[in-house]
Specification:
By secondary structure, the chain is mainly α. It contains three helices and no strands.
């Protein structure tokens, strides 16, 4: 099944990235805020391997902010 918070964080980051790239309609600032909140929530409840992936997702968000 996997870690629900981790999965949600990945989805929010992907969504924000697509909005920033113009491939999806939406408010970029709202999408980035949701992604950041999801990353924070997920980080506290993940394995070390997932934490590394979350750091990479955070870098993605940082690059589009």
């Amino acid at each position: 099944m996997g870690n629900r918070l981790f999965q949600e964080a990945r989805e929010y980051v992907l969504n924000a990235e697509q909005i920033a790239n113009g491939t999806l309609d939406g408010n970029k600032d709202d999408a980035i805020t949701k992604a950041k909140n999801a990353l924070v929530s997920a980080y506290a409840n993940t394995t070390e391997a997932e934490k590394q992936q979350l750091r990479e997702l955070q870098s993605t968000i940082d690059s589009i902010s």
